[in-house]
Amino acid sequence: MNLTEGNPQEVRNERSATTVGFEDPTDIEKVSKEGELQGKENPTLRLDKHGLQLVPQPTALKDDPPNWSPALKLLVVLQVSWLALLGPMGSAVINPAFVSLAKNFKITTVQASYKLTVFIVFAGVTPLLITPLSNVYGRRPIYLLGNLVAGVTNVIAGNCRTWNGLLVTRVFNGIGTGSYVAIGAATICDLYFVHERGFYMGIFTFFLTNGPHFAPLIGGFIAQNLSWRWVTSSSLHSLSPSSASPKRFTPANPSTPPPIANTHTSLLFKRSVLPGRKLHLADFGRSLYMLKYVSIMIPGLYYMTCFGYGSVLFAVTGSHPFLEFYNFDVAQVGLMLSIPLLRGCLIGEANAGWLVDWMANRYAKKHDGHRKPEVRLDAIWFALLVPIGIVVEGV
Is the residue at 280 inside a domain? Predict the structure, then answer.
């Protein structure tokens, strides 16, 4: 079964905010409170292990993603998280070799860092365009096509002879990577109930954030012993087998008719269009429309700032000073760009997911089953470590 593909998911979307949908936060809060009142009057509602109402309530259909077996859901989470690691890793694997890259194309080290900057810009903008498509055509086509584009452009980048040509490949690589990374969190929301999402989002975020941190660990040694071209092309070896994972491990929907024999129709994913859904031009602006809600805009700005200063800043600027002031070789630069951030993220992200779930469940038990999203914000105090770490690095 394709994630969000078929009638079961359509039913869930009509009564819950489990996909990348654009339900207003006020509507979600209203539905949550109405569900709590119904839970007191209707004993047939499903409850979690804490005796609290499941949000959203599952249907009786086996094809409903929350009704899948725990093992299958975990497998989907791991494959989605693995892809989220590989995409950013392919963009950052060249970071230790910025100096070598600059010498090859006769440009400055600052200009060489534009290779990463261009990728980040297009990987960040693409989700605004891809999200509406995934809501109509399902998740699987996005995963397959995005992964294919990312892998191919990595190989082309490794064989580029001009700097402008290399930047063009980074544009399309950002589009391919940003497309499937954008729907990873939505996939987890498709699979799990509200009280479970923090833990599994922690898994996904750990892989997503540590892709750029793990990349220099291997990129530095490859660049030193082979060349920066091998560094870029090597990303295909990990992306290629992963392109089959969404097709291999995501089960086919038994409630849908057999595949159409028409190859043209199959390649265009016409069978993937969700019943009753059409793509409208206004759908591409709904993400920006959500910025009118302070509860969405502020967390978005917060995540953007922390990720930019806590991860991207170090990745973009670290190569040159380590080579110039400390006389590190390329492999040593890779170790410095990788190991500190890997250790920090392992401690933070491995604990953040289950911690915020525990905080939300504890609040719900004390407040008659009402899960208030703002309770999770109590964990935000740990964010003070980000500016502290940046200052220590600069000193």
Answer: yes
Q: Find the CATH number of the domain harbouring 386.
A: 1.20.1250.20
Q: Which residues contact 217 (CB under 8 A, 6 or more apart)?
A: 334, 335, 338, 339, 342
State pLDDT tens for residues 57-92.
777 777 788 888 889 999 999 988 988 888 888 777
Distances in Å between the Cα of 35 and the Cα atoms of 177, 221, 319, 334, 367 are 37, 55, 53, 51, 14
pLDDT digits (tens, 9 = 90+) for 322-367: 777 777 877 777 787 778 888 888 887 777 777 888 888 888 888 8
Q: Helix, strand, coil proportions of the chain in percent (round to 5)?
A: 75, 0, 25
Phi, psi (deg, nearest 5) at residue 78: -65, -40
**Tokens standing for 234?**
């090597």
**Amino acid code (one letter) for 361:** N
Q: Residue 71: which domain range?
A: 7-394
- Here the tokens at position 3 are 């994630």
Residue 336 burial (CB count, 10 A): 19
pLDDT digits (tens, 9 = 90+) for 134-191: 888 888 888 888 888 888 888 888 888 889 988 999 999 899 888 888 888 889 988 8
Tokens of 217: 């660990």
Give the integer Cα–Cα distance in Å for 252 and 72. 13
Residue type, 270: K
Eight-class DSSP state of 136: H
DSSP state of 392: H
